[in-house]
Amino acid sequence: MALALDRIDAVSIVGFLALVAASTVLEGVVVATVIGGFALSLSTWRLHGGRPWEALAWLAWVGAAVAVVIVPGTPGVVAFLALLVVGLGLLFGARAGRLPTIWNRDRGSTSDESVDGCGDSR
Fold first, then answer.
1. pLDDT tens, position by position, for the chain (122 residues)?
2. Domain residue spans in the chain?
3. Torsion 13-98-40-69 (CA) sign
4. What's the alpha-carbon Rg for the chain, to the nearest Å?
5. Gap between the Cα atoms of 112 and 119, Å rounded
6. I need a surface site. Which of 2, 49, 61, 110 has the fewest CB within 10 A?
């Protein structure tokens, strides 16, 4: 069970703390928009890092930030909470190894092959 924090986790914690601090000064819609953009960038970092389930978790949290802005009232709160729970489930499921492996990224590879296996075969 590998729930250890890495560099992107540290960036996300510091970033969200900064956004919480900014929420005391900025309007709620602006903060929600910035949070959505920040979560989208974290999602692409996770996907690029070979963690597709965690990338989907961050995309669910982008949806949660968008739901707060787009859908006002009770349906927005329900959508926000549902997407928050889905994201948490994906994140902890991926970290605990409960979700199937979509692809393996061999970080120690010294081969000339690309990620999809269609590299130069000399």
1. 556 788 888 999 999 899 889 888 988 888 888 988 999 999 999 999 889 999 999 999 999 988 888 888 899 999 999 999 999 999 999 999 899 988 766 555 444 444 444 444 44
2. 7-95
3. negative
4. 17
5. 6
6. 110
Torsion sign over Cα 42, 43, 47, 48:
negative
Look up residue 25 and give its DSSP letter. T
What type of residue is 107?
R
The candidate with the shortest Cα–Cα distance to 29, out of 72, 83, 74, 58, is: 72
- Residue type at 81 in one-letter notation: L
Q: How far, in Å, CA of 49 to CA of 11, rounded?
A: 14
Q: For residues 67 and 59, is the Cβ–Cβ distance under 8 A?
A: no
Strand, coil or helix: what is 47? helix
The first and second tokens of residue 7, run together, are 């560099």
The answer to whether residues 65 and 29 touch, using CB atoms and an 8 Å cutoff, is no
pTM of the model: 0.75
- Helices 74-95, 52-70: crossing angle, 10 deg rounding: 170
